[in-house]
Amino acid sequence: MLPIMKILIFVMTVLVLQNSVLAHVEHSTKESAEIGLKPKLGEAIPLDSTFNDERGNPVRLGDLVQAPAILALVYYHCPNVCSLLLQNVAEVLNKLPAEPGKDYTVLSVSFDETESPQLALEKKRFYLKMIERPFPENAWRFLTGNRENIQRLTQAVGFQFRRVEKDFEHPVTLIILSPEGKITRYMYGTDILPFDLKMALIEASQGRIGPSIAKIARFCFSYDPKGKKLVFNTLKVTGTVTLLFALLLVTFILWKGKKDQVKGK
C-alpha cells in the first residue's frame, strides 16, 4: 500500500500545482480573456442586420447570403494581419474553380463602427485588382455598420475583440456560412489553402457542419492578441497528460495488486 499512497500524494501534488499555476496565468491574462473565438457551429447569423455597402446604401445580410458565403471580420485600416488575410483571400479566389457570385459570395465586414463606406470602397478596389480572373464586383462585398449591428454579428459568430487606441486586438479567421446563414466552419489564421476553402464551400452548400476540431483547438490553443495568432497551451496540455498518466499508473498498480492477491490465494 505504501507505493500506492506515494502515487496518490504525487497525483494530488500535481493537481494543486496545476491549479495554482493556471490560476496565476488566468489572473495575468484577465484583460485579454475576452479576446478570441467561441465557435458557434450550426448557429445562424442575424440575417435581418443592416449594414452599409461600399456606396453607402443599406443592405440586409439576408439579401447578400443567398449562396455559401465567406465571412471575413476585419477593420480596413488594420496595418498588418487584416490586410494579410484579405490579400490571401484574393490570391485563393484566383485559384478557386467555383463561380463567384453563383457558387459563393465573399463578405468583408468591418467591426470598427467609425470606418466609412468610402474607405470600404477604396479597399474593395484594391483587393479586386489582385484577382486576375473575371470576378463580378457584387461577389465580394465590403461592408460597414453601426455598433449595434456589428455587435449582433460578432456575438452571433463568437468573435470577441477589443479596441486599443486606434487599433484592435482580435482573432483572425474566415467563417463559412451556408445559404441559410448558418455557420458551417471556421478557418483559422491567414494561411488559406484553395482545396480547404473549396471543400468548406461544398460542405456549406449542403448544409454540413465542419468537424468538431474546434473544441480540441480551444483546449490545446489560445489566442495571443499581441502576436495575433494561436499559441499552444503547453501548461494545460502537459498538466492534463501528466494527470492522466498518474491516474492510469494508480489504476494499473491497484489491478496488479489484486491480481497478485488472487494468485497468492
Please describe what this structure looks like.
By secondary structure, this protein is of the alpha+beta class. The chain is 45% helix and 19% strand. It contains eight helices and 13 strands. Strands 6-5-4-10-11 form a five-stranded mixed sheet, sandwiched between helices. The protein has a two-stranded antiparallel ribbon with strand order 1-7. A hairpin with a 5-residue loop joins β10 and β11 (183-188).
Provide a brief overview of the structure.
With 265 residues, this protein is α+β, with helices and mostly antiparallel strands. The protein is 45% helix and 19% strand.
Write the layout of secondary structure elements.
Blueprint: H1 2-28, E1 36-37, E2 50-52, E3 58-60, H2 61-64, E4 69-74, H3 81-95, E5 105-110, H4 117-128, E6 140-143, H5 147-157, E7 159-160, E8 162-164, E9 167-169, E10 173-177, E11 183-188, H6 194-205, H7 213-220, E12 221-224, E13 229-232, H8 234-264
Parallel strand pairs: 4-5, 5-6
Antiparallel strand pairs: 1-7, 2-3, 4-10, 8-9, 10-11, 12-13
Helix pairs in contact: 1-8
